TrEMBL record:
Pfam families: DUF6448. InterPro entries: DUF6448. This is DUF6448 family protein.
Amino acid sequence: MRDVTPLLKWVPENREDDVRKAFDETMSKQGSSQTSQEKAQQKLFTTLVRIHREAEGASFTGVKSAGHIPVIVQEADAALRTNSVDSLVAKVTANIEHAIREKFTKAELSKQQANQSVKQGREYVNDYIHYIHFVEEINEMAEGRAPDTEHQH
């Protein structure tokens, strides 16, 4: 790769210079030892991923190998490659439905025991909170809003 432009779409405009600098360093290592080239390429990729993650508001814990890509991310990428999102939508929808039903059932069962003791009451409150917050967060994401980390009670 001799052009930094394709990389810039992954970072905010105000951080382009950081990526350009790392790219220029990588290009300056062309003709150097294999080890020097690999280190420069790794630095470029690390810089790119770190800046991208920061822009998402996510922490950067290092570059992960391809083997660490979650299956659902691979399937989302495959949907883009094949121009078909149907199986991905079905899978994610089924996963969400299963999780909601599971949390609902747990809260419903613990609700039946909630008044038998303080301990069981607390178990119900815990199950209720997990159920409600999950539904709330899923819905906020579906509506295009970031989940509210400060839940109102």
